[in-house]
Amino acid sequence: MQTWLEGDAFYCYVGNKGFEDMDKLEIEGGVPLNGDVEAGGSKNASLPILFASILTSEKIEFTRLPDLKDVSTTLELLRGIGARTELGKNSASVEISSLASTEAPYDLVRTMRASILMLGPLLARARKAKVSLPGGCAIGARPVDLHLSGLEKMGATFRLEDGYVIGECPNGLRGAKISSRVPSVGATENLLMAASLAEGETILENAAREPEIVDLAKMLRAMGANISGEGSSELRIRGVSSLRGVNWRVMFDRIEAGTLLLAGPITGGKVCVRGVDAECLDAFSKKLMECGVRVTAGSDWIAAEGMGERPISFSTAPYPDYPTDLQAQLMAFLAQVPGESVAEETIFENRFMHIPELNRMGASIRIEGARAIIAGRRDCFGGATVMATDLRASASLVLAGLSARGTTNVRRIYHLDRGYESLEKKLSRLGAQILRKAE
Ligand code: UD1
């Protein structure tokens, strides 16, 4: 079955409800940012980890949970199937002692592609699941065929009805050998969760290797799952009959950390991000160093200084290579590094929506298919009113605004709020003149 969802990068505003708070960020640029800032919990790790609470009837306690729209959507989806949740400051507990429903409704799913991650855990626990597919706004087709074909190999069957994927496995899921066409973060996570409670052994070949998958695997192991190979492209999971509750501290957000780190060099300052594992940012920091930024790191911090001296080429690819989620931000940085840099996007089409807006601010970037040619020029950015089009694009506009002469207004920042917790507060503490205002 071929289906499409809009994803992390693409978000649709449908109807009148949900984002009536159309805030904007007003940035007075040209101020060097300096100092230390603490990384928050990872959005992309939080979502699968929260969905993993479907796999047990016991309580799971989460800490370092980022306060983000996608996290509250996930908690709402879980409450919809019967979860009792308690929320604290960057913490939550989830207990699903019994399932009241196995459905993920359209109104919530349409706002978050990661809702598809309910499919595997629901099939594993309840042997059935009904997850809506959002339609109508497939900017950048992102299929979910790998999620579905993997679960089919484990014994599930699917049909599409009224925009919902309805899955069933009346005899339960069984282990299987599943080889993925391309490494998919979401499909690997879905199958990992499903396989933890399946009968027999599952082998995931060409699995994604992202640190967020390692975090999920470690949590599942703490819950009693039998998993090996996380962080490599082959995962082995021997199913167990039940999983238990656990306390889990979510890993740091490497995309937020990379964005905050760039705020130093792009303004001619120096920023140190704390609470990180710098190894997870290896491909990113290597590219910064290649263009002349001084990057230093310790056991739980990373710092960057220097505006960059040489143009570079980079290409996005699955971990451990350069992350697509930091493509737009590095492009904003390279726009002000003298010389011709090249960025290639190999993971998602239409992930260049920030380019027209960066150009309106003074950058000189042209698109040639999946490549962007950046004619870098120091101090290229001037203030402008720009429109955020998706999560990571928004971050690149904020970085450009911090570096620009004059005032920048970044509109439609609900995109930003999906993935960055209090970004403007963190940047203010580093010296940025940035304010959230109602439109
Ligand atoms: C996750 C991240 C997102 C990041 C992306 C790539 C979360 C919540 N989101 O998204 O921020 O940009 O990884 O690092 O963790 N594909 C298929 N069929 C499928 C699934 C994916 O063809 O069934 C393709 C996609 O179109 C894409 C590639 O595989 O070209 C990788 O996508 P995937 O790793 O699945 O991304 P997400 O899990 O959606």
Explain the overall architecture.
The protein has 2 domains: 2-40 and 252-438, Enolpyruvate transferase domain (UDP-n-acetylglucosamine1-carboxyvinyl-transferase, Chain, Alpha-beta prism); 43-249, Alpha-beta prism (UDP-n-acetylglucosamine1-carboxyvinyl-transferase, Chain). Helices cover 28% and strands 26% of the residues. It has 14 helices and 26 strands. The protein has a 4-stranded mixed β-sheet, with helices on one face. The chain has a 4-stranded mixed β-sheet with strand order 3-17-19-18. Strands 5-6-4-16 form a 4-stranded mixed β-sheet, with helices on one face. Strand 18 (294-297) and strand 19 (301-305) form a beta hairpin. The longest helix is centred in the C-terminal third of the chain and has 13 residues, at 391-403. It is elongated, with a radius of gyration of 21 Å. The chain starts with a strand and ends with a strand. The model is unreliable at 1-20 and 135-140 (pLDDT under 50).
Task: Quickly name the level 1 CATH class of the largest domain.
Answer: Alpha Beta
Largest sheet: 4 strands, mixed
Low-confidence stretches: 1-20, 135-140
CATH topology of the largest domain: UDP-n-acetylglucosamine1-carboxyvinyl-transferase, Chain
- Total helical segments: 14
The separation of the N and C termini measures 42 Å
